Amino acid sequence: MRKTVRPRFFSLLSGMSQKQEAQFEQVYRYIRQQEHRMATVSQVHEATDVSVNLIYQWIREGRLKPSIFQNLGYPCRSCGKMIQSGVLCEDCLKKLEHDIDQDEDERNAALKANRAKTYHTRGESRHN
C-alpha cells in the first residue's frame, strides 16, 4: 500500500512546486517591466492573481529583492507594518529590546533584594 501512496504524494508535491514556480515566473516577469518596478505586493497580486502570502514568502526567502523592487515588503510579525528584512520592524525590535532590558533590571533588583535578606551562620561563607 505504501508503494502506491508515496509516488502520488511526491507527484502532488512536484505538481505544487511546478505551479508555484510558474507563479513566481509570472510575478517576476510582471515586476521586471519598467512600468511595474515600483509596484506594491497588493498591486502585483491584483495584476497576477498570485497569493499575497506566496509573494511575501518569496520576499522573505530572498527570491524577490526589495533592494531592486523597492515597494515590495512583508508585514512585521508583531504589528503588521511593512518591512523589507528581518521579522520585526525597527519600532517593535526596539520595544522588544527595551522590554528585555527592563525585565533583566527587575530580575537583578529582585536578586539583590533577596541577597540582602539572606541569613548566614558562622560556618558559612558569604560568597557561596
TrEMBL record:
Keywords: Cell projection, Cilium, Flagellum
Highest taxon in the source lineage: Bacteria
Name of the protein in its database record: Flagellar protein
Natural source organism: Sporolactobacillus inulinus
